Amino acid sequence: MSSAPASELPLLKIEALTKRFGGFTALDNVSVDIRPGERFGLIGPNGSGKTTLLKCIAGAESPTSGSIVFQGSDITKATPAERSRAGMSLKFQITSVLASLTVYDNVLLALQSGEAMAALLFSRSRARLHEQAMAMLNQFRLDSRRHELAGSLSHGQQQWLEIAMALAREPRLLLLDEPTAGMSPQERRVTGELLTPLRQRCSLLIVEHDLDFIKDICDTLTVLDQGLVADSGPTQAVQASTKVKEAYLAHA
Questions:
Q1: Together in a domain, 102 and 91
Q2: Do 67 and 60 touch, CB atoms closer than 8 A?
Q3: What range does the domain containing 228 cover?
Q4: Domain check: are 145 and 185 in the same one?
Q5: What DSSP designation does 151 have?
Q6: How much is the average pLDDT of 35-53?
Q7: Total number of domains in the chain
Q8: How many angstroms separate the CA atoms of 126 and 49, rounded?
Q9: 79 versus 252: which is more confidently predicted?
Q10: Do residues 87 and 34 lie in contact, with contact meaning Cβ atoms separated by under 8 Å?
């Protein structure tokens, strides 16, 4: 039997992933495929296992069993740094921008993270990366705040800045953990507008508990409930799924 063309192979393939904490099973035999250019949503009520799965993908947690394959390579036991070098970038729910530096310098440092030490010591890359830094600030509507300290931004703007920083290394897969947590309705709307075009740059895996936000962004949804996959498929079909409605109602 012939193998599938490379373009059809999953960018990320998770098979039978299980994670136990003592006697508690946080993930139970979870399998997920994410394809190149896909906007993939991982949803479920609080405590469903979403963040645990994201941490296993990023390398912050080690699965009890199962496998994680990224771009054809098994990364189940790889370190977070190795996954980053392979083309994965992660933004956790809690913002971690450098509050005492300017908005511009936050992005510049993220762009410089792949530079050689000599280039950084002699500031050779600052001028060369200026246009790229400004383009990212423009994309995330932060160009007018570039000279201000990152700590002076609103919560939503800090989240946008951190997404921009996560994109700086040109990842193949961007992982976002509840990117709209704590945002105002206006900031949530803008965040959706900012995330939608990113598929042209990389695949997206967005962890959310709010189906109303994620349904307009993602092509595909997987729903977790108590560590199990309750449903998975095209967004419109999953949105109407009885299993999904039951999972949310049970935790209402």
A1: no
A2: no
A3: 6-95+174-250
A4: no
A5: G
A6: 91
A7: 2
A8: 41
A9: 79
A10: no
Q: Is residue 50 part of a domain?
A: yes
Q: Note whether 88 and 200 are same-domain residues.
A: yes
Residue 247: pLDDT over 90: no
CA–CA separation, 209 and 151 (whole Å): 27
Helix (H) or strand (E) run with residue 12 in it: strand 12-21
Helices 185-195 and 155-167: crossing angle in degrees, nearest 10, is: 10
Confidence (pTM): 0.85
Residue 157 within a domain: no
- Of 155, 175, 174, nearest to 99 by C-alpha is 155
* Residue 42 · residue 50 · CB < 8 Å: yes
pLDDT band at 5 (very low <50, low <70, confident <90, very high): very low
Instruction: Name which of 51-60, 91-100, 187-196, 203-212 the model is least confident about.
Output: 91-100
- Which residues are within 8 A (CB) of 249 and not within 5 positions of it... i.e. 6 or more apart? none
CA 76 → CA 66, 73, 88, 106, 204, distances in Å? 8, 9, 13, 31, 19
Residue found by looking up tokens 């771009």 in the block: 71
Retrieve residue 20's tokens.
């136990």
Residue 197 confidence class, pLDDT cut points 50, 70, 90? confident
